[in-house]
Each structure stands twice: as C-alpha cells, then as structure tokens.
Amino acid sequence: MTLLQMMIGRWSLKLPYRWRRYLLWVLHIFDPYLCIVFGWLHNLSKMIACMTYEGALSEPEDFPKTEEPVWLLGKEYSTQTDLAALRSDVQSRLWMTYRRNFAQIGDSNFTSDKGWGCMLRCGQMVLAEALIRRHLGRDWTWESSTSDETYLRILSLFEDHKCATFSLHIMSQLGVDEGKQIGEWYGPNTVAQVIRKLVIFDEWNNFSVNVALDNIVIMDEIKCSCQVEGERGWRPLLLFIPLRLGLSEMNPVYYSGIKKCFKMPQSLGLIGGKPNHASYFIGFVGDEVVYLDPHTTQEAGSVAKKATETEVETDKSYHCMYAQRMPFEHLDPSLALCFYCGTEKEYDDLCNRMRQELIDAEKTPLFELVPTRPDYMKDDSSLEGASGRCMELEDHHLESEDDEEFEVLQ
Questions:
Q1: Staple partner for 160: which of 67, 214, 300, 338, CB 3.0–4.6 Å?
Q2: Which residue intervals define the domain Peptidase C54 catalytic in the entry (predicted)?
Q3: Alpha carbons 144 and 313: distance in angstroms, whole number
Q4: Is residue 119 scored above 80 in pLDDT?
Q5: Three-state DSSP class for 315?
C-alpha cells in the first residue's frame, strides 16, 4: 500500500459511518474509469468496502449509547449492558440483499435484481423470520460455525433459482399476476399478496397467510383460516396489515402505535421504507427505527451443506454485522405490519394486545380490529385469505431523494 493510500485510509476512519458509505458508492461508480490512471483506487475501494460492511472501523454506529431501551422484534435490550447480545440478535436475522449472476428469471434477461428487487427481498426477510420462529424459536442465534440441518434447509428455500420455494424467481413471476412485470418495483401490499399465493407451494410449513386489507383486521375469519378442519390443530399464522399512514409523509400520531407493535412478542417487524427504497424494520430506539437494508449487491450462490469455504462465505453473506437506524419521520407512509402466531393461544394474546394497546389506548388507532365481518363488507368476502376489501394500496412511484445502492466489491 502506498503512502497516499495509507493517508486516505486513515482520513476515512475519521468520517461518519454514513459518509463512508457515500465514499464507497462514489468510488464504486468511478472506479472502472479512474483505475486506468490511478490503479490503486481499486484496492482503496475494496478496503473501504471491507471496513464499512465488516465493521473494521473504530466504532460502528448501529446503536447509540443511551439509557433508552432498544426493542427488537418483541425483545428489550439495553445498550449499556446488553450490546453484545443485541448485536448477536441482529446478526442472527436472515439478511436478504440484491444478488447478481443468478440464472435469468423466466424469459426475461434479468440476472440481478439490483435496482428493483428491494421490496421482494424485504418480503423474503419476513418469511425467513417466520420460518426461524416456527422451527428454531425466537431465542435462536446464529454463529459463523452454525451448520444445523434445519437452519440450512430454511436458507435453501431462498436461493436464487427457480427450484427454491421462496426464491426471487418464483416471487417475481407470481407478481405478474398482481400486475407487476419482472423488473418493476413492488409496494408492501403487493409483496404481501405474492407471499399469500407463494406459501401454497410450501408443504413443509403449511402457513396460513392473511392480508388484512382496508385497515380492518377481522378476528374470526383469521382464526378460521388457521384452524385445521376436523382436527384440533393450528396452522401457523403469518399476518400482514398493509397501511397508509399519511399522504407523502408519515403522520406523527402513528409513531406510538408502531412502537407498540415492535414490543409485541408476535412481531415480525414491518416492511416499508423511503419511496422506492424498501427496508425491513425490526425495532426501534428512542425516535429512530432500526432496520436491515437490502441495497447491497452480493454474488448469488448456494450454502448447500456448508462444507466448503465458498459455502461458508455464502452463509455469512446472509447475515448483517450491524443494523442501521433512521428517524421515524423519514419512513414512507405506505408500509405493512407483520406478525407471526405459532399457536392459537399466541393469536388470542395478539388480539388482546392489539385491543388494549393499539385500539383502546390510542386516540388515532393504526387500524380497526373487529370480531366479525361488518355488514357493509359481507359482499366483499370473495378473496380467500384477505380480511377486508381487495383494495390496491400504495404501490406508488414517488421520486426518491436518497436512492443510494451499494455493492460488495470482489
């Protein structure tokens, strides 16, 4: 490494974490041209990418040093005493990002979803979290040495090829039925509808996916969809509640309700983000939401049985070292709340919590919770698995003010 590289490397250490991401982005864009003259720029961009995504810089800024608690998918942490456990919890979530060099999707020419697949990746993260809850439990944690067969089976469902049940390939082709061509940007409601159709092909988990439309959660219809006919059984519930909480900006009256959702043990977080820039939100601290960002492009690959060095590295690429934060006011008003209930008892508890904490305790509730379908909606019950009228919500295309995307450089 030259003296100039060392000087710039040391200078970059002093930059805020977000600025370093911008620097990586700029270097990535101009690298193919500038490296002809300045060959060392290529190595420099690799160095900054490594420091940015692998946490080699002095102190990551994932969580502030504060006395306020951090809530992450129903669990409470303190950054003063539980920081290591908190980061382990974040790292244990499956992180779905853009991928490149996979087999083309159907008859399209797409071999990467960079620039359009972020909301689909967020939907995958919700599904992955539901699968982990079902088979491994909320307290399960991942380590680089993890090779549990159940975990590897879950991960294989999301590989980027047409034979994987929850792959981007199948999801994007099902999206065509929802009016989205391959390569188009999705909104939270459309992704929820795609997942509702997708789980039909998954015999292993037998999920009941309900999409509560028109801001109404109909309790008896959801429970009925989960009860196994003729048996005293329960199909695990994956509940999406798509909402529009403002016109172009999030209405602050809803912040309190969203925070309460993150505290519920049944919470799978929410999917949303900035306009045309989707993220998976998994918690909050103070007045900031904590999220995983899919806008990193990585090489497609298979983990298989995690027997080779390449498979081990591919497994690592599904886990993010550090979460990110943004103020609540930066959230796009179109989002979908996500919940998982593995048993009927968990579902009854969720309904009680919603009634007490989100309906009775809030002046402006996020949604309605009703025991049965209202009379005025009884002619609109044709859509199986969707509580409420089949109303197309937000899938809008507002111009993003911050559409940066990053790529892990090889």
A1: 300
A2: 85-353
A3: 9
A4: yes
A5: helix
Contact at 8 Å (CB) between 262 and 357?
no
CA distances from 53 to 306, 321, 409 (A): 22, 7, 11
Tokens of 69: 């608690």
Q: What span, in angstroms and rounded, lies between the C-alpha atoms of 91 and 318? A: 9
pLDDT band at 178 (very low <50, low <70, confident <90, very high): confident
Q: Answer yes or no: are the C-beta atoms of 394 and 187 closer than 8 Å.
A: yes
Instruction: Collapse the DSSP code of 33 into the 3-class scheme (helix H, G, I; strand E, B; otherwise coil) and give the result.
Output: helix
Query: Over pLDDT 70: what percentage of the chain?
Result: 77
Structural tokens at position 82: 């539980």
Q: In whole angstroms, what separates CA 267 from the centre of its chain? A: 13
For the segment 195-221, the average pLDDT, to the nearest whole number, is: 94
Q: Which helix (H) or strand (E) element contains residue 23? A: helix 17-34
For residue 322, count CB atoms less than 10 angstroms from its CB and return exposed for 0-12, middle for 13-18, buried for 19 or more.
middle
Count Cα neighbours of 161 within 13 Å in the Cβ-side half-sphere: 9
Question: Tokens 């990053």 appear where?
Answer: 406
Mean pLDDT, residues 199-226: 94
Report which residue type is found at 174: L
Most distant CA pair in the chain, distance = 75
Cα angle value 321/326/330 (rounded, 5°): 145
Angle at CA of residue 298, ends 321 and 160, nearest 5°:
110
Residue with tokens 């969707």, as numbered in its chain:
386
Active site residues: 118, 293, 295
Residues 6+ apart with CB under 8 A from 224: none
Three-state DSSP state, 49: helix
Neighbouring-strand partners of residue 368? 216
> Residue 148 has which token pair?
């549990």
Predicted local confidence at residue 218, as pLDDT: 96
Q: What is the DSSP string of 337-403?
A: EEEEESSHHHHHHHHHHIIIIIIIS-SS-SSEEESS--GGGTT---STTEES---------PPPS--
Confidence of residue 44 (pLDDT cuts 50, 70, 90): very low
